[in-house]
TrEMBL record:
Domain TNFR-Cys: 33-68
Quaternary structure, from the entry: Monomer and homodimer. Interacts with TRAF1, TRAF2, TRAF3, TRAF5 and TRAF6. Interacts with TRAF6 and MAP3K8; the interaction is required for ERK activation.
SUPFAM superfamilies, per the entry: TNF receptor-like (SSF57586)
Organism for this UniProt entry: Rhinolophus ferrumequinum (Greater horseshoe bat)
Record function comment: Receptor for TNFSF5/CD40LG. Transduces TRAF6- and MAP3K8-mediated signals that activate ERK in macrophages and B cells, leading to induction of immunoglobulin secretion.
PANTHER family documented for this protein: TUMOR NECROSIS FACTOR RECEPTOR SUPERFAMILY MEMBER 11A
Signal peptide annotation: 1-29
Name assigned to this protein: Tumor necrosis factor receptor superfamily member 5
SMART domains found in the cross-reference section: TNFR (SM00208)
GO MF annotations, alphabetized: cytokine binding; tumor necrosis factor receptor activity
Membrane topology category: Single-pass type I membrane protein
Single GO cellular component term: external side of plasma membrane
Keywords: Disulfide bond, Glycoprotein, Immunity, Membrane, Receptor, Repeat, Signal, Transmembrane, Transmembrane helix
Residues in TNFR-Cys repeats: 33-68
Length: 263
């Protein structure tokens, strides 16, 4: 009775509007009785839904509450629900180059992704091998899982000489640091070629390797020559007497043998 008494008094327009709005709000709250997403209406009353990870074994009645039971292994429900059963986790098929990135549990769905080097393609609804960047292009890093390769042209000072889905452009070799000079400029597809700055430093290196073998060879040849000369001289001096002595001995031996036979 008190509000009615108040209403009869002259009210400012804004207060009247506020009163109207308040009344509207009240009626709105009452008309759909289960405003909460975690409730449902049954037999003219609001009952609690089942929390994620649980399914509704039986709905509420006029006198009893909903009965919720947990999802089984390999099942899930990720919402407040009135479902009579849980959903089955999907399979991440390794034969299709899929792998589970999130194993999933009773409240969250398992998430599959393509294995490293592959990305998901909507066209075939399958994993496709990542594209290779041609020479002169490098793969953008960090390489993103489940994303196709992003190829970017090598900037000046960098090169790529291979087809690769993972390799970045590599920096040119710095000949100065190596103490050498640049023999050939680098390109986006090839490295700089360095060479030693003084060719004279390389030349004495070669005789150092060949000199010992050359000396040994010369030594061997001279020894052989000396041996031939000595043998030649010896043969000339003693050769004739040697053969004469041999001949004499052979004759003697044969004579003895012959004598023996005669006896
Ligand atoms: C289920 O997994 C989700 C995401 O993978 C995670 O946020 C949540 O904490 C997990 N819940 C339980 C109960 O392990
Ligand atoms: C090579 O390295 C030196 C010393 O770090 C640097 O001064 C020079 O600019 C570099 N040269 C090239 C071609 O990058």
């Amino acid at each position: 009775m008190v509000p009615r008494a108040r209403r009869r008094r002259p009210l400012p327009a804004w207060l009247a509007l506020c009163a109207l709005l308040c009344q509207l709000q009240v009626t709105f709250q009452i008309t759909p009785p289960c405003a909460s997403e975690r409730q449902y209406e049954r037999f003219g009353r609001c009952c609690a839904k089942c929390e994620p990870g649980m399914y509704m074994s039986s709905k509420c009645t006029a006198t009893s509450e909903s009965i919720c039971l947990p999802c089984g292994p390999d099942e899930y429900l990720d919402t407040w629900n009135e479902e009579d059963k849980c959903l089955l986790h999907k399979v991440c098929d390794t034969g299709k180059a899929l792998v589970a990135v999130e194993p999933g549990n009773r409240t969250a769905q398992r998430r599959c992704a393509c294995i490293a080097g592959y990305h998901w393609s909507e066209d075939c609804e399958c994993c496709r091998r990542n594209a290779e960047c041609a020479p002169g292009f490098g793969a953008q890093h960090p390489v993103q899982l489940n994303k196709d390769t992003m190829c970017t042209p090598c900037l000046v000072g960098y090169f790529s000489d291979t087809f690769s889905s993972t390799e970045k452009c590599k920096p040119w070799t710095n000949c100065t640091i190596l103490g050498e000079t640049e023999a050939r400029h680098g390109t986006d597809k090839s490295d700089v070629v360095c060479s030693s700055p003084l060719p004279s430093t390389k030349l004495p290196n070669e005789p150092q390797i060949y000199l010992p073998s050359l000396i040994i060879l010369l030594l061997f040849i001279s020894v052989a020559l000396v041996a031939v000369v000595i043998f030649g001289v010896y043969y000339r001096k003693k050769g004739k007497t040697l053969t004469a002595n041999l001949w004499h001995w052979v004759n003697e031996a044969c004579g003895r043998l012959g004598g023996n036979k005669e006896m």
